[in-house]
Write a sequence for this structure.
């Protein structure tokens, strides 16, 4: 008998029919003899509805009350899911983040989990109940205020609970079959990966692979929780995210991120100046280098204006350049940047496809290229075709 | 400086505009120097929406999870109201029933408040905050399960909180100006009552006056809380419900209840048999007597079938009669049944208007007549015209 934590996102519980489908899946796991804790997000559009209501009432920020409002969302989905599971003859109870002992700091809207005291979860597991826990929410340890965990919060709840319970797996359900060598919506021949390390997954997620949030990968690594990214549509195995096993370095996949902007300085200054200016302004920039038009960096598009301001405010002169129409394509794998042949070949492949590379940067686990946004999908496809070709012809 | 508890129902917070209107009212009270606790129900149609969702998911009863689901409703309205109040420059926080220390028994769906431990409410009041408390909900003292208080639950929360705080008033906001000598929608010349006793109000409410629930009047009496029923549309005084003051007995008003059925036994048995059979089946019947067609009782229409079954199951014979098309009109006032002239006059007035009286019954505070449902409104008007005529000509 194993202890299994299952996490279902808002789409998986988007309506009554889907809630009943999730209930069947949970019941099957329980009836197979496992102890099951389910972490659930708010139903599909609930959060948007609440945000809309709050905007109708107030134009201002009220972080404490916004958390109170938003946490009604998981309350709805978890109660409905508990009903659907009980209808299948399996005992189930829902618990709020507070009841489940998810203790956080006091930062409303993006709290961090500080401790888990899930006594009530354990009591119910001991009785044989399936326990449904509200994702995304907790209660501050110091003043008992309701908090939310921000983006990816339900994943964080799942990983924290799995760690506390010493769970055999933290299953993250999604609408794809697992982690692929590229986004299968763009690259139909992309292959599902059976297992990746935390490092590899973190790099893929950070470079744009949306299947799992960087934050949950980081928490999984920190707390030693085996993650299993799998489909909510069938019972096949997905992708396990676990500590690295011994073996030669390998390429993992092509990640891409369409929501990037390139900011830089024309010609006369070097990449370190750009990196320092952005760092000082707390703007994330993990792809910094010297490219076609000077030193530059990729930043999230919604932070482009802030990035331009940060560069303009630096000591020294030189025109700040901005290109909001760029995407980032990344070849992820251990030691990728240390292989001159790989770096050169990536450049040749994009060049041969007529895709201009605006900037290239490498980290120990990743080689990223900025390309015009309209060429991003094609860049993903041609790089995948070369580095992940099926059969013995592939570079892998 | 007074301590004021204000209770707003679901209609008062039905949309963003109304929430802002309530916020202005609360802010005015706070800025006048009072300590203010606001009890709020779920927004207008929220509860119906949740009930609909739960029916889509499950055909069965899940009382614990239904309470978890429904309590999301007040969470939404209270957070939005807190935002709207804060926008006016008045500090406000919302607290769930659990956070506000509303401790109940364990009966999901219709829990009773056992104790109030509103430490957090007091702390916030001491800081100058307006405190918004979710009505209708609490937490069970023995096992920390979320409960709901059933019909009239928000009023119960308000009265309990007012008692705990020793509030100067528990203000119950409504869409009418207070308690009237008759429903002003039926009787335009009905007069607002400035003050009634708990006993008088309980009798009016029990006989159908919908402005205040019997349960909240009963709690007000038990805990000695002065209730102030008033309009949410203006700042005029409404009706105070307080302990009786010395003075001659008086008539209070005409209450009516359209949702009644008359069940009875044809001719040969007496009213006591009817009363006992209904009592044994736990069917409320506060109007029992011998009428035109034999011994009978008025019961809530939705319990008519159960009442017929209870009478049919009694020892003895005799046909059970049922008339589902009746309404109850009640003349409320101390000693009303002890005045033969009043009883006689009521009968004459209805007779003169051509309204058949199917059954009459009296209690120390009330004289009730069952009439055909289609004649109920007219019965209210003619009785009010005689017993509450304006000016010195009135019986009062």
């Amino acid at each position: 008998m194993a202890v299994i934590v299952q996490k279902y996102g808002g789409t998986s519980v988007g309506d009554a029919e889907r809630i009943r489908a999730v209930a069947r899946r949970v019941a099957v796991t329980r009836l197979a003899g496992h102890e099951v804790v389910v972490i659930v997000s708010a139903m599909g559009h609930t959060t948007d509805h609440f945000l809309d209501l709050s905007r109708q009432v107030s134009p201002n920020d009220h972080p404490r009350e916004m958390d109170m409002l938003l946490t009604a969302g998981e309350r709805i989905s978890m109660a409905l899911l508990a009903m659907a599971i009980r209808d299948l003859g399996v005992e189930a109870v829902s618990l709020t983040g507070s009841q489940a002992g998810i203790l956080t700091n006091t930062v409303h809207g993006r709290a961090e989990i500080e401790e888990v005291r899930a006594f009530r979860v354990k009591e119910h597991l001991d009785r044989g109940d399936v326990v449904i826990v509200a994702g995304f929410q907790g209660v501050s340890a110091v003043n008992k205020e309701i908090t939310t965990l921000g983006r990816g919060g339900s994943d964080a709840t799942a990983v924290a609970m799995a760690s506390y319970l010493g769970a055999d797996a933290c299953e993250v359900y999604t609408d794809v079959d697992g982690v692929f060598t590229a986004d299968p919506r763009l690259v139909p021949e992309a292959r599902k990966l059976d297992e990746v390390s935390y490092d590899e997954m973190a790099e893929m997620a950070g470079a744009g692979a949306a299947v799992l949030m960087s934050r949950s990968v980081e928490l999984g690594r920190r707390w030693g929780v085996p993650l299993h990214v799998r489909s909510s549509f069938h019972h096949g195995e997905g992708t396990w995210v676990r500590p690295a096993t011994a073996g030669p370095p390998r390429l993992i996949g092509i990640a891409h991120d369409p929501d990037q902007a390139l900011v830089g300085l024309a010609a006369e200054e070097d990449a370190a100046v750009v990196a320092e200016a952005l760092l000082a302004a707390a703007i994330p920039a993990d792809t910094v280098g010297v490219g076609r038009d000077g030193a530059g960096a990729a930043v999230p598009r919604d932070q482009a204006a802030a990035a331009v301001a940060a560069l303009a405010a630096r000591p020294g002169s030189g025109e700040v350049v901005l290109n909001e129409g760029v995407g980032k394509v990344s070849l992820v794998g251990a030691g990728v940047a240390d292989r001159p042949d790989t770096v050169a070949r990536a450049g040749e492949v994009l060049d041969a496809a007529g895709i201009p590379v605006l900037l290239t940067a490498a980290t120990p686990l990743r080689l990223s290229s900025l390309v015009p946004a309209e060429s991003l999908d094609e860049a993903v496809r041609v790089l995948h075709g070369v580095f992940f070709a099926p059969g013995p012809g592939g570079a892998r």
In short: The domain at 3-174 of chain A is CATH 3.40.1160.10 (Carbamate kinase). Confidence is low (pLDDT under 50) at residues 392-396 of chain A. The longest strand of chain A covers residues 251-266.
